[in-house]
Design brief:
Chain A is mainly alpha-helical. Chain A contains 14 helices and two strands, in the order ααββαααααααααααα. The C terminus of chain A is likely disordered. Classes of the chains: A mainly alpha (291), B mainly alpha (272), C alpha+beta (364). Chains in contact: A-B, A-C, B-C. Chains A and B meet through helix 1, helix 2, helix 4, helix 5 and helix 6 of A and helix 1, helix 3, helix 4, helix 5 and helix 6 of B.
Chain lengths: 291, 272, 364
């Protein structure tokens, strides 16, 4: 019998590869039709007016003062939430990463428990807690910290508090993963070389935890930019973010040009920030060696 | 890392850290815990702690065809999403894991995209598409959209499970006479069962808790539970929502427990 | 069983022609030709990266070659899927199915072939008895030791009477004593079943112990194929001489028409054709000689560097004036021990002309 030529066997190999790839076809097709196509369509729509091709939708975003205000509020609130989440999350992640494995798992469960609870439930809970006669105000008053109930809901403080609560797990998880992978021997080495524990922390541990902090912060920031549900409910309609304007334009005004232009801007910002995460934080450094 | 016997760790000086974390932990858990007793409040006003315990809100829910209808729709959609997203996700994960085409990275990125694009954009896109396909307010439309959102979660979980799996076993099975599919069904699948259960759970919760897409795509009589909650929250803040919330917390808790137990029993069964 | 390669039970020969497998610029298999007789135990021996596992995987069908031919008997299996080739495979990490019992594992291939429950139970019992695991059927995989797991893997691979048995370094994970025991077990199994077996290992001692023939492979090509004794006593090249058994190779003087080492002629029975480059010195063939015996011996002068007691023998290392080190063994019986030289003593190491072997640099 004659040996088989290369092209015949190559054909077999190619067919098998295609068969394997085709396993992912249904999922890919679904994502293509439901997500990629419409989003692409929207991109196209943002450049279209009743008269044809136009950049008016984008121009409006830049020129209109109302839009500027919306961008400003969205950006500032996202930034504020990110900072607060970092401040609250970093010590928590640190403590968890230093605990023995079993306790750490319990701790993580505590952090993740709200994560598993419905978004609406958590938002509602804050709505209730932050009322004028709600638990927060009544506790503060009974502790004597304040005399008059604070206005904590249907305004920016309410939105920020709610968003921080939702975002905390997103900050803690990457931080925890990074911190967990930091070799404890390094801290010990620094201490043995003469550094007091706090100094060792700031010069050794903190810099090594930076990738996790950056990843967590960017993640939180990105999510905040496009957030709709919680700010809408806790803001009582008084806080106007980009996501709300998009919804407004799409449903109430049926101004698809405006909605899609805004959407494209949001998407562009999101993609850029994700790219930033990818570049600033090589994923393996995020997970460390001990993932 | 020995917590207790590390002499450089002074637990007293760390007290501030422990207190700080305790406060943050309370911050995280309080809202969820508070909601439950509130659902038993007898009056129309939100009070904590409730002056007495009453089941009136649960009773009104039980007697409300709209709420029950919405719950059924949410449940149906979630179950269907699991049935769609899980097999599709498993097939995709398997196919991408074992094929080394140049294309695979591209496809893998494409399938992760639902996690990256902000939901609001996905929602208006879907809305726009469905308006033209007459899929608005249909269960089919909702399930398809939710499946797209769930597939990345399924893939992440299943891929992790496949990585841990000893691929040699499939090779052996094939050498012993099983086709690729048969080897997968009889050898691989039984062993990645915990991953499959987690993936199914993720898919269920993704659909069940989903609000934004439902806002656009399931209106009026075909509202999901979450959509109905959302619109009620905008209008009034009654303890009825607390009752629903408690039920939702319970559902999540039960599901997570089921997944945990099945994973645990799977492990113990194997080690006998 | 439609689409199966061959009927089970018969001793099937394997024919491989011009098998090529490349990974980019790297040739893992370089136009391999190989004939394996039906019922033969052939070992593919080579260092890591030599291509031995690649060849085995190609024979199994897990790897698609770029071109070439693989036949089992008269059937062309080159393009056949693994599950149609009727092969039994044993991996280094056993790859037992943890979600099935021992009996479940062994019964798996039988179930796939549609064999009924009663017959399956019979054959499973037969296979387990063959590997001396009678009664282990209901045990769970996790309860077994390494050696027991490997035997289950073996039972599973032969229970359906495959045409070909393929083993990829199956004993590498076991400790020395167990490994040696299993080598004998596998050999015994082979004698009983007479299945054509291709065995992959990097351990030359294992190859020498178990094989009917050894195919030494390096850089995707065969360096030499032959019976263990032939490979050991008549290596065809420097590589084989060094890879199989211990040896020191001394480079012959270049350009001389007759083989000489540092000017002195090398006496040998070997028929060389001018291509020889090295003389092979194996420790067990070397002896300390005194001035008297000259005629039939090749002699190398040097000083004793080290004397290492190794239990069943003493290893002497002798440094020649050119800096090379020769190793030779002496017995540890009382008389030999008394006659051991001291360190730094000047000695002459002798290699009888009949034992003198010359090898070329490259294999043909």
């Amino acid at each position: 019998m004659t040996p088989h030529a290369a092209d015949v066997l190559e054909g077999d190999a190619r067919r098998e590869r295609l068969r394997l790839l085709s396993l992912s076809a249904p999922a890919t097709l679904l994502v293509l039709i439901i997500l990629l196509l419409p989003v692409g369509w929207l991109f196209f729509l943002s450049f279209v007016d009743k008269d044809g091709f136009t950049t008016a939708n984008y121009m409006r975003l830049v020129q209109n003062e109302a839009y500027f205000e919306i961008f400003k509020v969205t950006f500032l609130s996202s930034f504020l939430v990110t900072v607060i989440t970092a401040v609250l999350g970093y010590p928590l992640a640190y403590l968890l990463s230093q605990l023995p494995r079993r306790l750490a798992i319990i701790g993580l469960t505590v952090v993740l428990l709200p994560f598993w609870t419905s978004l609406l439930v958590r938002t509602y809970a804050w709505l209730v807690l932050l009322q004028r006669k709600g638990l927060v105000n009544s506790t503060l008053m009974s502790l004597g910290i304040i005399d008059e109930p604070l206005s904590l809901v249907y305004n920016m403080p309410g939105v920020v508090i709610g968003m921080v609560h939702i975002m905390l797990p997103f900050m803690v998880l990457p931080l925890y993963a990074t911190m967990r992978s930091i070799d404890p021997m390094l801290l010990r080495a620094a201490i043995s070389l003469g550094a007091p524990r706090s100094r060792a922390f700031f010069t050794v541990f903190a810099p090594l935890s930076l990738p996790g902090l950056i990843a967590g912060s960017l993640l939180v920031f990105i999510y905040c930019l496009g957030f709709y549900i919680t700010p809408q409910i806790l803001g009582g309609g008084r806080i106007n973010l980009v996501s709300m304007k998009i919804l407004e334009n799409a449903t109430i005004y049926s101004d698809w040009g405006a909605a899609s232009a805004l959407g494209v801007v949001l998407l562009a910002a999101t993609l850029l920030l994700f790219k930033a995460i990818q570049m600033l934080v090589p994923v393996d450094r995020l997970m460390g060696k001990a993932s | 890392m020995d917590f207790d016997s590390d002499p450089t760790v002074n637990h007293w000086r760390r007290l501030w850290l422990y207190l700080y974390c305790l406060i943050v932990a309370i911050f995280l858990l309080a809202p969820i815990i508070v909601v439950i007793p509130m659902s038993f409040s007898p009056s129309e006003f939100l009070e904590f702690p409730p002056s007495a315990l009453s089941l009136r809100w649960y009773q009104s829910l039980a007697g409300s065809p709209e709420w029950i209808g919405a719950a059924i729709i949410s449940f149906k959609a979630a179950v269907l999403t699991v049935l769609v997203a899980t097999p599709l996700g498993i097939a995709a994960s398997y196919g991408l894991q074992y094929s080394h085409f140049a294309f695979t990275r591209l496809i893998r990125s494409a399938l992760i995209i639902p996690l990256i694009v902000p939901v609001i954009i996905i929602a208006i896109g879907v809305f726009y598409l469905y308006a033209r396909l007459n899929l608005v307010n249909t269960l089919l439309g909702l399930v398809l959209a939710h499946s797209v959102l769930a597939i990345p979660f399924v893939m992440v979980v299943i891929s992790a499970g496949l990585e841990r799996f000893d691929a040699n076993q499939e090779l052996v099975a094939r050498s012993l006479g099983a086709s690729r599919l048969k080897a997968f069904m009889t050898v691989t699948l039984p062993q990645i069962k915990p991953s499959v259960m987690s993936a199914a759970l993720f898919a269920f919760i993704t659909s069940f808790d989903e609000v934004v897409v439902a806002l656009f795509v399931s209106r009026g009589p075909s509202s999901t539970l979450t959509r109905k909650m959302f619109t009620s929250l905008r209008d009034q803040v009654s303890p009825a929502i607390a009752a629903i919330s408690t039920l939702l917390i319970l559902t999540t808790f039960v599901l997570a427990l089921v997944a945990l137990l099945s994973a645990r029993s799977d492990k113990t069964a194997r080690s006998h | 069983m439609t689409g199966q390669a061959t009927s089970s039970g018969a001793s099937i020969p394997i024919t491989i022609r011009k098998l090529v497998k490349t990974y980019g610029p790297y040739r893992a298999l370089d136009a391999i030709d190989l004939d394996i007789a039906g019922g033969e135990f052939l070992t593919l021996l080579g260092p890591s990266g030599s291509g031995k596992s690649t060849l085995l995987m190609a024979i199994a069908g897990f790897l698609r070659p770029d071109s070439g031919l693989i036949q089992f008997g008269a059937a062309d299996v080159t393009r056949l899927e693994p599950h149609r080739r009727n092969i039994g495979v044993v991996f280094q990490n056993y790859a037992l199915f943890p979600h099935m019992s021992v009996a479940g594992n062994v019964a798996y291939p039988l179930k796939l072939r549609g064999i009924g429950k009663a017959e399956t139970a019979k054959r499973v019992a037969w296979a387990l008895a063959l590997v001396k695991l009678d009664g282990f059927g209901e045990r769970n995989i996790h309860q077994l030791s390494g050696g027991q797991r490997q035997r289950v893997a073996l039972a599973r691979a032969i229970v359906f009477e495959p045409s070909v048995l393929l083993m990829d370094e199956p004993l590498s994970a076991l400790d020395k004593k167990l490994r040696e025991h299993m080598q004998i077990e596998i050999r015994r199994l082979h004698e009983t079943l007479r299945v054509t077996t291709v065995y992959v290992t990097h351990d030359q001692r294992e190859a020498l112990t178990m094989s009917d023939r050894i195919a030494v492979i390096n850089h995707g090509r065969f360096a030499q194929i032959g019976e263990p004794k032939a490979l050991y006593e008549r290596p065809a090249s420097k590589f084989v001489a060094e890879f199989i058994g211990d040896a020191t190779l001394l480079a012959l003087d270049e350009g001389a028409k007759q083989p000489t080492f540092r000017g002195l002629p090398v006496k040998t029975k070997d028929k060389i054709n001018g291509a020889a480059s090295y003389v092979v010195l194996r420790p067990e063939k070397l002896r300390l000689v005194d001035k008297k015996d000259t005629a039939a011996w090749n002699r190398f002068a040097g000083t004793v560097d080290d004397i290492v007691y190794q239990g069943e023998s003493v290893l002497l290392s002798v440094r020649l004036e050119g800096g090379e080190t020769l190793f030779l063994r002496q017995g540890t019986d009382q008389q030999s021990l008394q006659n051991l030289p001291a360190r730094h003593a000047a000695v002459e190491v002798g290699l009888h002309a009949d034992d003198t072997l010359l090898v070329p640099e490259e294999y043909p």
